[in-house]
Amino acid sequence: MIALSRWKIIAVVLAVIFGVLFSLPNALPQKTVDALPAFMPKARLNLGLDLQGGSYLMLEVDTDALRAERLTNLVEDVRTTLRDEKIQFSDLGVVGGEVTARIIDPAQLNPAQNALRTKVGAALAGAPGGRDVNVRTDNGLLRIAFVQEAINAEASKAVEQSIEIIRRRIDELGTREPSISRQGINRIVVQAPGESDPERLKSIIGQTAKLSFQMVDDSVTLEEAAAGRIPPGSELLPSEDGYSTILLVRKRALVTGEMLTDAQQQFDQQSGQPVVSFRFNSQGARRFGDATAQNVGKRFAIILDGKVISAPNINEPIPGGQGVISGSFTPESANDLAVLLRAGALPAPLKVEEQRTVGAELGADAIRSGQISAYIAFGSVLIFMLLAYGFLFGGISIIALVVNGFLLVAAMSMTQATLTLPGIAGLILTLAVAVDANVLIYERMRDEVRAGRSPVSAADAGFSRAIVTVFDANITHLGAAMIMFSLGAGPVKGFAWTLAIGVITSVFSAVLVTQVLLGVWFRVARPKALPIA
Q: How far apart are CA 481 and CA 490, in angstroms?
């Protein structure tokens, strides 16, 4: 194994070139990195929140509000279905987590139950009977409830959707490499390095941004609606359109924000005020065009998160699928609204459970402490190896350790893995234990020399017989790192990722790099005895 194979030499040379090239941007000023040729790597170590400073938020998805909203929508679906089937009913509403309705004619109870099962119960994999609602009768009363499997699937889906939408919203702010991860069943942890204004981050992340276009209900006056005379299928919402503080609107949405394809902050050509222009997809454009054509002369409300932000008159059909939202916007608030609409609405409200801000100065102190720790670790290993194995074998181990450091930094820069303070601890641990393989190999060589073998034979046996133990130990470390990475969160993941990369680079450098360097020495010096013997 001590022989100088061509593939080993090529592998070591390419690894050294790779390590130097991909580590180089971290040692150069940003201006110099930007001026490098296009073919040169320019990625640098991605510093985490604790090293760079920024904002930390722990958010909880309000699944109870999600369920309440689904029940409200279910009420409207039941109302529409029963009316289409010409079945008379009363007392329709939500009671105890389920929708109830009393059928006036007992003979229509079974037809009503069958109609609701057919039209309201949507197919859902894994739910009993293949449906996400359960329809049953109780003394002339219809009870419609979501099955538990459907509730759990909806909640899990809401968390996954929220993570993706939060990521899109933060990307719109230009925050570099945010860390967004799920924690537990319904919590999301957001780390935004470099974002020093957590309140702005909360306003962008936490707003649900559910946009809908609903018709204004003029069948009763606002005074009558405020006194409690609200027609079925309508609701009274707070208004910020500048004309009234409340507005009565139909619950059924004509078009929703899910059908938007674009939203941009612009300025009105006549008034010069900030507005938000929007564009629908083909389905939304068709529905918006049909709705405006059927309601010319009437008002429709643009509703954002349960508040009317504008209620213009429909003067003529709008077939193009484009429009403008006007209101009391500032340029910043109009731009924020456009960002929210482009990123999409959250499926459920988010509650801030924990908030922290890490200053850039604290991150710089952590980096300096990490650097000092790394220097101490490297110096301790250097002294030990030189004292234990001499300048030749100890020096070769140190060279392999330096190559390991370059490979580790290069791999993390190339993959853009986030380096955190626990990650620095993992890096230092990697450097400290990286020479374990060299110690095992060198001690095995000493044993073979004592057994009477020649230097070349002892060196070859040192590698061939110790390599099994080296791989066994490092595979165990790698498995532990993978378990921590898959089950851990935040700092634990940062430590595990650095440790996993370090295990791979350590085995390569401690075994292959050391073997090639010793092979060169054997070929040049042709020793009659091993210095470590």
A: 14
Confidence of residue 76 (pLDDT cuts 50, 70, 90): confident
Helix (H, G, I), strand (E, B) or coil at 262: strand
Give the pLDDT of residue 385.
87
Give the pLDDT of residue 173.
66
∠ CA 177-364-421, nearest 5°, is: 60
Looking up tokens 């390095």, which residue turns up? 193
Q: Please enumerate in sequence order all residues whose Cβ is within 8 A of that of 371, keeping only pairs 6 or more positions apart, or say none.
A: none
Name residues whose C-beta falls within 8 Å of residue 246's C-beta, 6 or more positions apart in sequence.
Answer: 222, 225, 226, 236, 237, 238, 239
The token duo for 59 is 């958010």
Outline where 313-359 has alpha helix (H).
331-343
Cα–Cα distance measured from residue 529 to residue 127, given in angstroms and rounded to the nearest whole number: 75
Q: Where does residue 432 rank: exposed (0-12), middle (13-18), buried (19+ CB within 10 A)? A: middle
Which residues, listed in sequence order, are joined to residue 131 by a DSSP beta bridge? 123
pLDDT of 1 higher than 80: no
Mean pLDDT of the chain: 82
Q: Are 65 and 433 in contact (CB under 8 A)?
A: no
**Tens digit of pLDDT for each residue in 358-417?**
766 666 777 787 778 878 888 888 898 888 888 888 899 899 889 988 888 888 888 877
Nearest CA to 232 among 77, 115, 92? 92
Stated as kind and residue range, the H or E segment containing 59 is strand 54-61
Distance CA 392, CA 380 (A): 17
How confident is the model at residue 126, as a pLDDT? 36
330 burial (CB, 10 Å; 0-12 / 13-18 / 19+) is exposed
| Predicted confidence band of residue 44 (pLDDT cuts 50, 70, 90) | confident
- Contacts (Cβ under 8 Å, ≥6 apart) of 128: 134, 147, 149
Whole-angstrom distance, CA of residue 159 vs CA of residue 165: 10
Residue 244 or 502, more confident? 502
Contact 49, 367 (CB under 8 A): no
